[in-house]
Design a protein that fits this description.
The protein is mainly beta and 208 residues long. It contains three helices and twelve strands.
Amino acid sequence: MIDPAADHLVYVVPDLGPAVRAVEDRLGVPFTPGGSHPGLGTRNVLLRLGPRIYLELLGPDPGQPRPPSGLWLAAGGGVRPSLATWCVRSDDLHGLAAGPAGHLVGPVRSMSRARPSGDRIAWTLTMPHTPPPHGGIVPFFIDWGETAHPCEDLPDHGVSLSALRGRHPDPAAVRADLGGLGVELAVEAGPPSLHAELRTPAGTIVAL
């Protein structure tokens, strides 16, 4: 079960260069450079997984100073590369933040970045908590507004998302929290974590 409004997966790494090469080798396809997140100390690369969903590899940006509060989503925090959280599209970010599960939703913030081409894209999101709630199972939310979805400019290399699920010691409680946010995700018993499976052009399944 994959929520139809799922927008992207966030895979955090301590060093973007070697991490990109490692994931590209596993998937057999290249990533597309994204850009830097001003003030957050991070940059990204992207891979299209469908018409409106992509994989984001997020790591430290050596061209920015490290923010006093730490890197966004603890990218580069000395931990192994991992699927930190995921993002869902919504056109009511303020309503989610003020709703019954609003304590799980970060503050609404407008952001922008420049593409490698120099074009600037802008969006609004609920700023993810660090660490993300319930081991990343609870997503953050994004509204692209008038900006075209990034997948419209990403090449289709034939990689798709075949499964997304969470694990938590109390799956029922987490499912209730997700329901309060209007989100669909399979959650099973286990240590708090988020897991994805990608189907490659060769037909193999790669777990993240």
